[in-house]
Amino acid sequence: MIIVCCGSGGVGKTTISAALGLCCAISGYRTLVLTVDPARRLADALQISSLNNRPQKVDFPEGMEVSGELYAMMLDPKSTFDGIVKRYAPNGLRDRILSNRYYRYISRNMAGLHEFMAMEKLYEVFMEGGYDRIILDTPPSRRAIDFLEAPRHVINLLGHRYFLRLFQPYIRAGRWTGRIFHVFAAPVIKAVGQVVGAAALDDLFSFFQLWNDLLFEGFVRRASAVESILSAPSTLFFAITTPQAFPRSEAIGLAHEFVCRNFSFAGFIVNRVHDLKADLVERKESIKKGGIYENDKLKKKISAALMLEKRLAQSDKDALLAMHTALKPGGKIYSIPFSDKPIHDLSGLLVICRHLSGR
Questions:
Q1: Which residue pairs, CB below 8 angstroms and at least 24 apart, start in 257-262?
Q2: pLDDT by residue for the chain (359 residues), tens digit each?
Q3: What is the C-alpha separation between 160 and 155, in angstroms, rounded?
Q4: Which of 169, 183, 195, 285 has the most CB atoms within 10 Å of its CB?
Q5: Which of 231, 258, 290 is the last residue of a domain?
Q6: How many folded domains does the chain comprise?
């Protein structure tokens, strides 16, 4: 099973992804949390010194009962791209591809590469079959749909008929000597060659030959496989949000996109929800213990703070009710209470995990 977490930036998506991973591990599953976020939030929450492109096992503290295993990794697009070349290219071509100047540039700078390589990494770990559960922490929702469409975007770019029509006669020739270049080159290619030089253009032709012969068909095949994986009933999509209007509208928009694309929308996870009863009881108990009811100024400030808590709690309650109208059959709303304490360790994730599991 794959669980995909999408949502606006700043709603706690990475933390919730880690909590979902912990829930799965506690339930006995061998689980991987894959984040595309280069920040350290996932590593911090799981108490790992650093994350890279290889899965790292999470060590649980004594007393935390976990029957499964939890692993985490952070996407490195360049290493992932190099790994694809090393995996699929014949021995004689690997060094040519990795040393090609255009490949080196594209593997670091191409627009959409981060998302594209995340899909490749998802495909890789899924096909290896080493995990019962894979949790995918995606970029913020302004790019979430682009993220899901990244394989198709890159293929459309590098497989564009203009490029193929321009370069394929020379690609098929398989020869890049200056004589062949000058005899057969179209005027537009001659003009480019005069600007960048024959050697640079030779590298460009070499790149397109390698792309055409080796990478293009493989990318098309794997992109199609990823689309099938994402649309499978066993892949669940959650829209992560807070009760505030903007992230809530983003989450609802994502939910509609998931349904339109025939993805299995599992529901909303609403983070930082003010709970009317819990908040008021907690604050009243704190006031009683402090013995400060006698001070009139403090009483007024406390009353004002409690009224604010009431308004926030009622507003969040109304937001949750409004979100029910966006749910499709089978979807649920999971609520995680607001907390003043930041989540920075496994104990904090365990609290979120209990709310997600309804315990």
A1: 257/145, 259/328, 261/148, 261/231, 262/231
A2: 999 999 888 898 989 999 999 999 999 999 999 987 766 777 877 888 778 888 999 999 888 889 999 999 988 888 888 888 888 777 777 887 788 777 787 777 766 677 778 888 888 899 998 999 999 998 775 566 666 776 666 566 555 454 555 555 544 554 444 443 443 445 544 544 444 445 555 666 666 666 655 566 777 778 788 888 988 999 999 999 999 999 999 898 888 888 888 899 999 999 999 886 655 555 555 555 555 555 667 777 777 777 888 888 888 888 888 888 777 766 789 999 988 777 778 988 999 998 988 66
A3: 8
A4: 169
A5: 231
A6: 2
Any bridge partners for residue 122, and if so which? none
What φ, ψ does residue 335 adopt, rounded to 5°?
Answer: -110, 130
Same domain membership, residue 238 and residue 223:
no
Residues 239 and 344 in one domain: yes
Residues 167 and 139 in one domain: no
78 and 19 fall within a common domain: yes
- Of 171, 203, 231, the position where a domain reaches its end is 231
* Beta bridge partner(s), residue 238: 5, 267
- Considering the domain architecture, whether residues 122 and 243 belong to the same structural domain is answered as yes
Q: Which of 10, 3, 19 is nearest to 346 (CA)?
A: 19
Q: Looking at the structure, do residues 166 and 150 belong to the same domain, yes or no?
A: no
Q: Which one-letter amino acid corresponds to residue 119? A: M
* Closest by Cα among 143, 89, 88 to 118: 143
81 found inside a domain: yes
CA atoms within 13 A on the CB side of 174: 1
> Which residues, listed in sequence order, are joined to residue 32 by a DSSP beta bridge?
71, 134
Give the integer Cα–Cα distance in Å for 237 and 264.
6
Closest of 223, 83, 93, 99 to residue 158, by C-alpha = 223
